[in-house]
Queue: 2 jobs
Job 1
Amino acid sequence: MSYSVAVAGASGYAGGELLRLLAAHPEFQVTTVTAHSNAGEKLAAVHPHLLTYAELVLKPTEAASLVGHDVVFLALPHGASGAITAELPDDVLVVDCGADHRLTDPEAWATWYGGEYYGAWTYGMPELPRADADTPATATAAAQRAELAQTKRIAVPGCNVSAVTFGLAPGIAAGVIQADDLVSVLSVGTSGAGKSLKTNLLASEIAGSASAYGVGGVHRHVPEIIQNLTAAGGTGVSISFTPVLVPMSRGILATSTAKLAPGVTAAEVRAAWQAAYADEPFAHLLPEGVFPRSGDTTGANTVLVGLAVDERAGRVVVVSALDNLVKGTAGAAIQSANLALGLDETLGLPVNGVAP
Ligand SMILES: NC(=O)C1=CN([C@@H]2O[C@H](COP(=O)(O)OP(=O)(O)OC[C@H]3O[C@@H](n4cnc5c(N)ncnc54)[C@H](OP(=O)(O)O)[C@@H]3O)[C@@H](O)[C@H]2O)C=CC1
Ligand SMILES: CC(=O)N[C@@H](CCC(=O)OP(=O)(O)O)C(=O)O
């Protein structure tokens, strides 16, 4: 069976990456692409690298363009997807790459985003371990996958959120690190900010320079990270989160540290991540002493993790890398859509990065 697919926001970075991956997917046929200011243009005019769908004409982003498809991927600015989705039939699988449906707490939405709250959807991170807070060591990703298999509405995680969650969740779920004193500093590529012109992203200002932003616990990804790590079994989750814009177009390299739980050995720490990712197709723990580079994941739906125990500091140091446009958005969206349609979770998704 082949599914007809619409991609809204196809002229943007996330939309373009969805199209690149969907072109290699054996069960999906993209028949509609939409845009905002670029509506009316051929796709070839905005994404010359995408030959498969080059002749499709970008329609306006409105419900009328999207109805009649089996699957709709939304890659729109925050706040733009809620109203459109309300007009789509319940039996259409809708996968939103934006933040509109990620947060389960309406107050958190009001605090960090604002505007109308359209409610949380099934969270599109199949690997997320979920635990009863009293028994974190029993956390597995089975519950998340089971929910995804039943849903018609998927909220794709934020890209920075994914990098941090993949880095820390296994240790929290297994109880080998403390959740109340987490620190994550991320090197992030510029494409995470989207295609529209922003003054802090002028080439003359980012080339050859690194700059922190969202400093002081004010980045909107903080509540989403806390939501995930709490679901993984963390109690009193507290994280200091600082992204640093670096001169690369794609990729995120997150360095996260956490206090070792009392009495835990280095071998037990490693075993926690090893067990969590042993059977995962897209999450991988690297051998001892090996740490990922962001570029190792370019183009792949893969998150790579390296870890070490800093005995002097009493902390675990986890380095996690992913491509913000693939495992950080478009790849995660397709992986979750595969599950929701009962397809092989890995269908159409590259596992190997492009390096160097
Ligand atoms: N870039 C990334 O790494 C990641 C992005 N995301 C999320 O994916 C979504 C898209 O991001 P990204 O592709 O980077 O952004 P871009 O700015 O590159 O693209 C935005 C898309 O939305 C369209 N658009 C702009 N304004 C409106 C509007 N008012 N109403 C409807 N459509 C509009 C644009 O159309 P046009 O260009 O024709 O005006 C374009 O197709 C965002 O919610 C983002 O947070 C999530 C994780 C990672
Ligand atoms: C460089 C840069 O600005 N990156 C963005 C990535 C956000 C993202 O893509 O996630 P959302 O879907 O939650 O917007 C940021 O840190 O805000």
Job 2
Amino acid sequence: MIYTVTLNPSIDYIVEVGELQLGGLNRMNRDLKLPGGKGINVSRVLHRLGIANTATGFLGGFTGRHLDDRLRSEGIGRDFVFIEGDTRINIKLKAGEETEINGQGPEIREAEAEELITRLSRLKPGDIAVLSGSVPPSLGAGYYSRLIEAVKKAGADFAMDTTGEALLNALPLNPLVIKPNHHELAELFGTELRTEEELIRCGRRLLERGARHVLISMAGEGALLITESAAYRTAAPAGTVRNSVGAGDSMIAGFVGTLDATGSVLEAFRAGVACGSATAFSDDLAERSDIERLRPQVEIRKIAHTG
Ligand SMILES: Nc1ncnc2c1ncn2[C@@H]1O[C@H](COP(=O)(O)OP(=O)(O)OP(=O)(O)O)[C@@H](O)[C@H]1O
Ligand SMILES: O=P(O)(O)OC[C@@]1(O)O[C@H](CO)[C@@H](O)[C@@H]1O
């Protein structure tokens, strides 16, 4: 079973205005409230692919209840720890460009934090925990490491999609896959990454530090996959972008779900790119039919041997 862990879920409030008047009154052309938070997005895409999974993490308040209802109505398995604070609302403003304003997240009390660790310590060998997204400030960056230790002690595996210190701390614990986008990768290494060679070099350094697969997503420019033995590249399939929020999470869902089901790293890579692009071309996350339509368009090229 795949478990997704979202420490900081959200309702994503997608707001479309024509031209943004800063300091003035703007009227919305369109708005949409979607379940959000990176792990929750992974769960929703896995579910659409027909892959059994359980969404866990923290939910609270009226927003948390709404999210839980939405996930229940979609038929997604849930095992959230319910907290006192309100789950955040993240604003995704579309005014030509996409601008995101994400909340910090509610306060998580110590007993609530301990409860999630207890739940994850019940995973079984063969299970995979997908840990995604930001950490509410009250938990601190070290919390992910405690969760991972519980998962590993239970004999289960884990994948990680977060940034900064939390990601670096997870590397020695050997994540199945990590997925920085090219901007996050540059930030991790404190440098600009202009060429494919530079991206691959940084990806390899993350392998050396313990990751087992490194996916580098590059939005409309496709993605790179760095494994122990080689580096691969795909272009993104062509299409009209509608809402790219959750494209990276969709990619993780396709990669982890397919790797778990087939054992094929390249099929997992292909599925990941198809899921990511299908989401970018949809208002909400991708539907299975859109993913299947794009899958054959994803051509994978081996570009380098590792080592
Ligand atoms: N504009 C686009 N056109 C085609 N495919 C896209 C586009 N944006 C994203 N994708 C697909 O989705 C994958 C992941 O996208 P991206 O690199 O934007 O991830 P991300 O930054 O983690 O996204 P997010 O944080 O919005 O979930 C890309 O590798 C690509 O396959
Ligand atoms: O603030 P975080 O946890 O880093 O990211 C949260 C978020 O931006 O990520 C998802 C898209 O990947 C959205 O559903 C959600 O609003």
